[in-house]
């Protein structure tokens, strides 16, 4: 049983109506409301996993409010609903036999900007956590930073007996013994108004994640061979064996990659030094100067893509790319076409800004930022860390090996990266190649060797 630090509150006693014994303080937040669901539902399916998960509704609502419900087969029975309205969102609970549902929690855009329904295609998600008795709502990727509202049924309860009573009272809502249904409803009060305008809501593309959002997965990877009791307890990294399957394959392929290979016969200089020289005086300098304007007018919004191998048809572009980031250079905010990726820093360091899903109206402020140094690895998939901006604020260049693939079950292979342009529009670029690796390596090694040993013309 969880034993978190919570202030005690009276337990809920009656299984038929778990709100009946709320304390006065709690009852203030639990407000009776009208059930404004328009029956029948516009979308519904059996809950894929009994008792927990995240439902993601990708849809353009045209500002039309809606309910997303986890409920019994009979929609008039036990219901835990997310209600997303104009300028607000709330969690609503209805017990079998109750005349009216109760609003458990409400947030408004005065305190929580953009919590309500929006224009344009948005990913609205609803996390339903049986073990911790927690409901969460957010938009975009399922992360702590994109969470807009949380309701914890055990908030403030420290006594284990009281916790157990609450769990018993809420058993009809969080049971794993009976299959629940996920349904989406339009809001009754507004449906006629929107119908009169001729507004049509797009059919939601609904996704399901069997793991509720409890906390973020760490963005950095530690090789599982280095795991110890301290690292297991800290939880600062995701272990390589725990990566999603597609990322695990990528990590295994690049984990031992290094920039410098001193065992090459006849070579007298290091590739890391040769790259630095070429960025200042050679072919890499010429190439990066020629790229100004591809992504934006700022000459520092450029970097080099050195590809390794050939396209295998299961990634956006060639799957393995050595990226070279001169000091002060950066990428635009971009996603990766819902591909998986692993990035290992081979030389220097890179700063990574993580963003929520991007649209022309979404915030361009990062959710959080972290730095990856030589030897560090990070990862991303369709939900975690998919949209980012890489930048090198230092004076020394940075080199990273990036690798990409799609999930085995992904039926849409999107060949482009979407990025936020200088005009704040969402544009596309194809991840092409500035050099092949062997071509680039031989040329910069010759440039630098000739310079060091005085053989240049």
TrEMBL record:
SUPFAM superfamilies in the record: RmlC-like cupins
Sequence ranges of Basic residues compositional bias: 1-11
Domain of life: Eukaryota
Region (Disordered): 1-32
Protein name per Swiss-Prot or TrEMBL: Cysteine dioxygenase
InterPro entries tied to this protein: RmlC-like_jellyroll, RmlC_Cupin_sf
Species classification: Eukaryota, Metazoa, Echinodermata, Eleutherozoa, Asterozoa
CDD domains xref list: cupin_CDO
């Amino acid at each position: 049983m969880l034993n978190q630090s919570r202030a005690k509150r009276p337990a809920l006693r009656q299984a038929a109506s778990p709100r009946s014994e709320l304390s006065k303080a709690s009852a203030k937040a639990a407000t009776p409301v009208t059930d404004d669901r328009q029956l029948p539902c516009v979308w519904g399916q059996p809950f894929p996993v009994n008792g927990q998960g995240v439902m993601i509704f990708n849809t353009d609502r045209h500002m039309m409010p809606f309910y997303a419900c986890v409920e019994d087969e009979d929609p008039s029975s036990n219901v835990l609903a997310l209600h997303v309205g104009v300028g607000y969102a709330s969690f609503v609970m209805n017990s079998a036999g109750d005349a009216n549902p109760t609003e458990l929690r409400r947030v408004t855009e005065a305190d929580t900007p953009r919590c309500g329904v929006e224009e344009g295609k948005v990913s609205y998600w609803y996390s339903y956590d049986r073990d911790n008795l927690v409901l969460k709502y957010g938009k975009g990727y399922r992360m702590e930073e994109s969470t807009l509202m949380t309701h914890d049924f055990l908030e403030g309860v420290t006594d284990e007996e009281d916790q157990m009573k609450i769990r018993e009272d809420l058993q009809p809502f969080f049971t794993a013994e009976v299959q629940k249904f996920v349904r989406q409803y339009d809001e009754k009060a507004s449906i006629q108004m929107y119908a009169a305008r001729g507004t049509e809501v797009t059919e939601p593309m609904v996704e399901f994640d069997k793991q509720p959002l409890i906390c973020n997965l760490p963005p950095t990877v530690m090789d599982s061979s280095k795991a110890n009791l301290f690292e297991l307890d800290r939880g600062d990294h995701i272990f390589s064996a725990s990566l999603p399957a597609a990322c695990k394959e990528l990590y295994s392929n690049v984990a031992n990659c290094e920039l410098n290979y001193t065992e090459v016969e006849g070579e007298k200089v290091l590739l890391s030094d040769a790259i630095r020289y070429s960025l200042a005086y050679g072919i890499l300098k010429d190439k990066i100067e020629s790229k100004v304007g591809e992504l934006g007018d700022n000459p520092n919004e450029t970097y080099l893509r050195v590809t390794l191998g050939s396209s295998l048809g299961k990634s956006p572009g060639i799957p393995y790319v050595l990226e070279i980031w001169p000091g002060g250079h950066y990428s635009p905010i971009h996603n990766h076409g819902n591909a998986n990726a692993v990035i290992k820093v081979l030389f220097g360091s890179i700063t990574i800004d993580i963003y929520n899903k991007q649209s022309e109206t979404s915030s361009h402020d990062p959710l959080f930022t972290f730095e990856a140094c030589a030897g560090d690895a990070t990862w991303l998939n369709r939900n975690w860390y998919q949209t980012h901006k890489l930048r090198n604020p230092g004076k020394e260049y940075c080199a990273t090996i990036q690798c990409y693939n799609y999930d085995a079950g992904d039926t849409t292979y999107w060949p482009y990266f979407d990025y936020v342009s200088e005009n704040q529009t969402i544009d596309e670029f194809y991840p092409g190649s500035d050099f092949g690796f062997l071509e680039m390596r031989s040329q910069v090694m010759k440039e630098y060797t000739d310079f060091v040993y005085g053989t240049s013309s």
